Backbone:
């Protein structure tokens, strides 16, 4: 598979110019997401060193019916290879991880909270091992930031796996009552067993776990209808485990965000940065914003025209770092950092519409 761009050749490998002329045509709304195995062959002419290093320059139009999430994910993996690695593991997380493993033994149900825009990237690789056979509910928070098609695709995916999944909006409270009802339902057999042993009933214990800033504490506050747990729109606010009582029947454990000590999947790490689910000191915002522009230009539900209209800027089809640079010159006196912050902030606030950055594998 090869495509020619202005000044660059791409053959399934490290991206110099940002788009491919070849696309698959998936027959359903659920697409595969995994890396390409093709060998890259790249020839570059007429690009600056910065452009060659970042691998982002120019995009072609994408026909929505031909868009394939597999292509986008494979390209994202190639784009990140030349970037500084995104790694973030503050000291309190190691302590929390050890304590959380001990507390998991006390839990009847676990709420695995993820960012609905990137459910795979906010899935901890060790969580299955830690939970064992414990009952789990996957909560895809920020449902208001993804489309109905995205929600349906993920609901179908988890249904096929036999996994309970709920969508929620911790900021405004949507989905919280469903969560409490399902926790009661799944944990109800606890007191049946206790009664058979002659023991008094106790509250059902539910642990809320997940990556930083996916909305765990906000969900608890909405469930309790009062602010019991510190919450803010940035990673690392909750720093200790805390049990809170919900009526007479349930107890919830709020926990700090846990993240792997080392993130091997850098495509996932970039998506964590885009969605503000990892500490901002771990990444270069200009690089992350450039990749976000690259992705949005490729996703047909957004496209380069949406970006141009948002910033009232004629980008001449240019995306990636070139787009960020042009925006910096036009609006921020040449400050790339401020331009990058604006782009990332606009995405995080939903200014480009309800956009997920992942679809489930087949």
Residues:
């Amino acid at each position: 598979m090869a495509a020619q761009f202005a000044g660059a050749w791409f053959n399934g490998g490290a991206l110099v110019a940002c788009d491919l002329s070849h696309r698959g045509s998936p027959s359903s709304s659920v697409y595969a997401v995994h890396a390409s195995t093709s060998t890259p062959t790249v020839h570059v002419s007429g690009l600056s060193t910065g452009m060659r290093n970042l691998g982002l320059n120019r995009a072609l139009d994408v026909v929505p019916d031909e868009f394939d999430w597999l292509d986008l994910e494979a390209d994202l993996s190639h784009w990140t290879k030349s970037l500084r690695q995104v790694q973030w593991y503050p000291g309190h997380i190691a302590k929390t991880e050890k304590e959380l493993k001990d507390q998991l033994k006390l839990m009847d149900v676990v709420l695995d909270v993820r960012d609905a825009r990137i459910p795979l990237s906010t899935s901890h690789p060790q969580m299955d091992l830690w939970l064992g056979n414990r009952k789990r509910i996957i909560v895809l928070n920020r449902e208001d930031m993804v489309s109905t098609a995205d929600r349906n695709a993920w609901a179908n995916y988890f249904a096929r796996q036999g996994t309970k999944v709920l969508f929620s909006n911790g900021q405004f409270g949507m989905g919280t009552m469903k969560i409490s009802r399902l926790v009661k339902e799944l944990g109800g057999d606890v007191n049946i067993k206790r009664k058979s042993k002659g023991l008094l009933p106790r509250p059902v214990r539910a642990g809320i776990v997940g990556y930083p800033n996916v909305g765990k504490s906000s969900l608890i506050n909405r469930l309790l209808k009062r602010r019991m747990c510190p919450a803010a729109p940035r990673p690392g606010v909750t720093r200790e485990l805390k049990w809170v009582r919900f009526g007479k029947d349930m107890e919830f454990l709020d926990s700090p965000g846990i993240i792997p000590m080392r993130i091997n999947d850098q495509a996932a790490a970039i998506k964590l940065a885009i969605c503000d689910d990892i500490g901002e000191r771990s990444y270069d915002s200009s690089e992350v914003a450039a990749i976000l522009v690259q992705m949005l230009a490729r996703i047909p539900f957004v496209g380069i025209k949406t970006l141009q209209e948002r910033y009232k800027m004629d980008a001449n089809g240019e995306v990636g770092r070139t787009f960020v640079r042009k925006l910096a010159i036009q609006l921020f006196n040449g400050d790339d950092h401020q331009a990058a912050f604006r782009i990332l902030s606009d995405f995080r606030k939903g200014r480009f519409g309800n956009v997920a950055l992942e679809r489930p594998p087949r």
